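re: ur question from yesterday

yeah so i grabbed the chain u mentioned. its 338 aa long if i counted rite. heres the sequnce exactly as i have it in my notes:
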Amino acid sequence: MAPFVPLIELSRGGTLECQHAGAVAVVDTGGKLLASAGDPNWMAFTRSTLKALQALPFMEAGGPRHFGFSDRDVAMLCASHSGEGMHVAQVQSILDKSGVSYKQLQCGCHVPYYVADGVGPAPEHFDERHHNCSGKHSGFLAYCVQHGHSLQDYLEPAHPLQQAIRRDVARAAALAPEDLRLGIDGCSAPNYAMPLSALARAYARLASGEQDGEFGGSFGQLARAMTAHPDLVSGTGRNDKAFMEAGRGDWLTKVGADGMQAFASRSRGQAFAVKIADGSKPALYAATVEVLEQLGWLDAGQREQLLPWRAGVIANWRGTAVGERKPVFELALPSAKA
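ran it thru and got these C-alpha cells back, copy pasting raw so excuse formatting
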C-alpha cells in the first residue's frame, strides 16, 4: 500500500501545477476501519490535534472542579488560539485560578496569529499568553500545582505530568505507551506520533463523551467545551471555529501544524484523521471538506458554509479566475481493497 496518494490537485490554465498527496483514516469508537485513502496506519506526529488528549490527566484528576474552571477555561486547554483579547483574558483566568504567573509558561512567545490573519494590528506588547498554545500550557501548570509537582521542568518527558500524559494518550488511542513515538512540538512540549487510525479512534471516543467506558466524564466535558466555544479553540476566521460552527454542535475538530486534522461526529460515533504530506493548509482544508462530502456528513447549508474552505476556483489579486483546486481521491472501503 502506498503511504500517500494524491488528494488535491491545483491546475492553472488547464495544466497541472501542484499535487498534494496524503492519507486519510476513518474509524469508529472501537477502532474499526470504515474507509481510507493511502495508508490509514501511517505514523504521523499529531501536533496540535493532541491537545484535548493532553488535558486528560488534569480532567481525570478533577482539575476543573478543584480550581473552579468554567467550560470556557476547559476549551482553552484544547486551543490553538489566535491571541485575540478574548483568548488572552481566558488564559489569564486559568492562571489566576491556579495561582501562577504567565511568566512561568514555557511555551515561548510569537506574534499573535490574528495579526497574520489580518484580523487586527499587532499589539504594542505581547507575551507568552498570546502564544497559540498558552491555554494548554496553563493547564499543564494547573495540574502541577494541584499535585505539588515542580513547575520549572514541567515539559521534560520524565516529569510526572508528561508521564501521565503519555499514559492517557496511549489509553485513549488504544496503544501501549511505548508505541507512541516521542518528538518535541513547536511550543517545546512533548508530542507523539501514532498511526492515523489510532488518532481517529481517540477522536471518535472523545466525541462520544459520556458514552466512553474509560474516559466518559472527561471526554464529555472536553467535547462540550470545544463545541460550545469554538471561538476560543481557534479564533476569528480560523478553520476549527468555522467547521465546528458549521457542525452545529455535532462536529468536533482540531487542526495541527504541517498538514494534520482530526475530525469527529458526536452523533455518529465516527472520526477521521487527515495528513497532507507537504503540510499545505489549503490542501488540508479542501481534503477535509471532501472527506465530509464523501462520508455524507454535509447537508446543503453546511456545504454552502464550507465553500471558502473547499477545493474550487483560484482567483488572483484582481479577482480573475486563473486556476482550479480540486479533490482527486475516492475513499475506499476495507473490503474493496481486499
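noticed a couple things. Residues 107 and 188 are 6 Å apart (CA to CA). also Residues 281-295 form the longest helix (15 residues).
anyway ttyl
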